[in-house]
Amino acid sequence: MDNIIEIKNLSLTIKKTEILKKINISFEKGKIHGLIGRNGSGKTMLMKCICGFIKPTEGEIIVNGKRIRKDCDFPDSVGIIIETPGFIPYYSGYKNLKLLADLNKKISKEQIKSAMNQVGLDPDLKLHVKKYSLGMRQRLGLAQAIMENPDILILDEPMNGLDNDGVNDMRKYLLNLKEQGKTIIIASHSTEDIEILCDTVCEMDKGVLTKI
Question: H/E/C letters for each residue in the chain?
């Protein structure tokens, strides 16, 4: 079994509140792993720890053989949607992604446009992001997550704001990414999403993670 992410004895306490409690879990490469649980159960905080955004109180996270916040600050080759994606409201979708892509200088304009096309957005649309629907913003967030062709995707409620067609498109797209060998961790309130997409499922409740 080839585990791309390993989490060992992970705990997080913020202002004397235990957010995550002794989490031990590994995620196998090339599969879709589901996280379910109520709001406030700790799912988003776990994702933020994996991404290096929050330092855990104890324990360690190893992504692609590197310990987060020890060997590196952030994991390599990870695309992320956590909470509502933030974009510059007075820029177009393409201009927002171009600005972000220019930070790493890894990809071309064509690759940005390809990512937008793949999620059903027109890269030539001049509409400002502030006039986007929630579903369009969500698609733009996914385009941002995938545009640099990462090995791992960490997606917190990626179906938010999508209509039925959008949800179906997104499911097909994520299954296609799995076929390409990507590893995906997805948090979703939808049992249907989890059943259709996920190879493994874990439930988070009051900071405790249980494999189902």
Answer: CCEEEEEEEEEEEECCEEEEEEEEEEEECCCEEEEECCCCCCHHHHHHHHCCCCCCCEEEEEECCEEECCCECCCCCEEEECCCCCCCCCCEHHHHHHHHHHHHCCCCHHHHHHHHHHCCCCCCCCCEHHHCCHHHHHHHHHHHHHCCCCCEEEEECCCCCCCHHHHHHHHHHHHHHHHCCCEEEEECCCHHHHHHHCCEEEEEECCEEEEC
